Amino acid sequence: MASVTEHYEQHLGPIYTWMGGDLQAVIERNRAELQELGVKPSEHGVAIDLGAGPGGYTIPLAQAGYATLALDTCALLVAELQERAAGLPIRVLQADLLAFRQYGEGMAEVIVCMGDTLTHLPSQEAVGRLLRDVAATLTPSGLFCTTFRDYYTTELQGAARFIPVRSDSHRILTCFLEYVATHVNVYDVLQEHTEAGWKMSVSDYPKLRLDPAWVVAELEAQGLTVRQDRGGNGMIRIVAHCGRE
After folding, report:
1. Are 181 and 125 within one domain?
2. Given 3-state DSSP classes, what are the helix, strand and coil percentages for the chain, each rounded to the nearest 5?
3. Burial of residue 129 (number of CB atoms within 10 Å: 0-12, 13-18, 19+)
4. 219 φ, ψ to 5°?
5. Residue 227 exposed, middle or buried by CB count within 10 Å (0-12, 13-18, 19+)
6. Count of domains in the chain?
């Protein structure tokens, strides 16, 4: 089984932006979500995007005026975002998300960790460490938002474990889930049309089965005000504030 980094570098990274669809539409959708969460334009604020990918949240944060630190472990996606970041107040780094405080410049008004990134961390203990560091980095009125898939509450059975991700005339991506005690093993099955016909490649990697209630409790233990609701694409969304409801 591949590590998360290997899986993205060798399998998902080259198609990640395609997988998400029209990136500009994603950016506009995320901009609206940030506004809904109360993220307002800032002249001097700092934002951090953990697991930034191609910049779906990084770009609207920077366009709102935040000096934005964007971290990702995938070199391909980091290079992609660096290209898009031209002219915007964005610093892009290929780095371990657990070490994000080493690269920051003090406190942050906004920290986001979106798109199932938390489940890519190596253990529940690592998630707890990240959440504690996030809470310690937020300004007194700061906001943290994360989304992830709930692999904990219900195990999909039978054919429901085969999940179509995206397809077009040249490419088909399907995901298969295999549940074990603390993780779900994710098999990404990619079929691409080449001059020689259809070619299939498969890569698998582990994701954490995170209990949403545990994530909420960990953030509340740091003194944050927390709410859980539904994010996009069927994900759990958890929003935490310092010092206000």
Report:
1. no
2. 35, 35, 30
3. middle
4. -70, -40
5. exposed
6. 2
Residue 186, domain CATH:
2.20.25
Confidence of residue 244 (pLDDT cuts 50, 70, 90): low
Helix intervals (H) in the chain: 4-7, 16-20, 23-36, 58-63, 75-84, 124-137, 212-220
Separation of alpha carbons 241 and 109, rounded Å: 10
Structure tokens at 56: 């779906």
User: What backbone phi and psi angles, to 5 degrees, belong to 233?
Assistant: 55, 35
Residues 105, 39 share a domain? yes
Q: Write out pLDDT tens, residues 143-191.
A: 999 999 999 999 999 999 999 999 999 999 999 999 999 999 999 999 9
pLDDT, tens digit, for every residue of 61-77? 999 999 999 999 999 99
> What is the residue range of 184's domain?
158-207
Question: 224 is written with which tokens?
Answer: 């944050």
Q: How far apart are CA 224 and CA 142, in angstroms?
A: 10
CA distance 55 to 61: 10
